[in-house]
Automatic annotation (TrEMBL):
Highest taxon in the source lineage: Bacteria
Name the record gives this protein: GAK system CofD-like protein
Xref: NCBIfam families: CofD_rel_GAK (TIGR04357)
SUPFAM superfamilies: CofD-like
UniProt xrefs under CDD domains: YvcK_like (cd07187)
Lineage: Bacteria, Pseudomonadati, Pseudomonadota, Alphaproteobacteria, Hyphomicrobiales
InterPro entries: CofD, CofD-like_dom_sf, CofD-rel_GAK
Alphabetical list of Pfam families matching this protein: CofD (PF01933)
Amino acid sequence: MSEITITRAVRMPDPFRIERFSSNPKLGPRVLFFSGGSALNGLSQRLKKYTHNSIHLVTPFDSGGSSQGLRVAFNMPAIGDLRSRLMALADETVLGHPEVFRLFTHRYSKSARKDDLKGELDAMIAGTHPLVTSIEQPMRTLIQNQLGMFRAACPQGFDLRGASIGNLILAGGYLNQNQQLEPIIFLVSKLVGVLGTVRAVSDDNLHLGAELADGQMVVGQHLLTAKEHPPLTSPIKDLFLNKSLAGRDPAVTAFPTRNRKLVQTADLICYAPGSFYTSLIANLLPEGVGRAIAERTVPKVYIPSLGLDPETGKMNLSDKVHTLLNYLHRDVGPDCPTHKLINFVVVDRTLSDDETLEISARGITVLKLDLVSAQSAPYYDPEPLCEALVSLT
């Protein structure tokens, strides 16, 4: 089998492709995202209108929020962002499983008594809780089994307040599958009728670490995002994978073969909006990611985040593109041509030309489109952003 490259002119947005995909999303394009966090969930929900074949490679390195409690209790990768993306892509029509979706998106009260929550969990495991009894067999038994495994392994004193039931099911499944994420992600995808593919970018239980410009070492994603802790006082100089939260102990992990195969089937590769380092660059750290991207001859699009990102400080758009390329070149080598890694930067029309000159000088096409509406400001409107992506496939 041979591969050829075809060049075509594209209208932006392309009404023909938009209409074709929206009329039959089952045959929609395989748009692949490197992302993490919740920034892409709105786009993911809207994308179901155009394609049921999108691919989402998500970081499992978070160390904050409810995921951290599970990571500490079970020595496992972070599952919160995976669960969030699975739910964003779930089939919410009558053809899906809305009762399973309701259970997975249910959270325990933060103000409830601990004993009451344990009783509620026990009722779910026994199948007597209303959210569980409404689920048909055999899905009900599968879910009860995962929750039962979680309950049996749960350490004394584990706090269920504010916990996502979806996270607890994923944690139980992880333990039930010999501490492997892939089988339980696959199972949950079937349970909620995920219209796309969601995978962890790495199988390993690792954390993020950063060397700052002033020489400080910071270990833990939760210390980098400024969501749970004060913002960094110095710019990030280098992001790396670390074996634990105990101190600097760099780790190496491989890009799984199954993920490489997904990249090789993509019709478009997107570096998605979100926290620049902990959601995007973190996805590029496993060995083999850059090579897989360079080997696939399809459009490669960077969509920068809008608004304030505490992780990037005073970095402008050109700085972000340079940094993104720098991390990709670490894997493919410095001689890899830019066009094999990034072809397009998609921005809102309001961005000044001065901010895009250096990017264009690299041979990267900057597409200025109407991507922010009065309703979505100051963030992207998912509809025109989806239309832009499917137009490029």
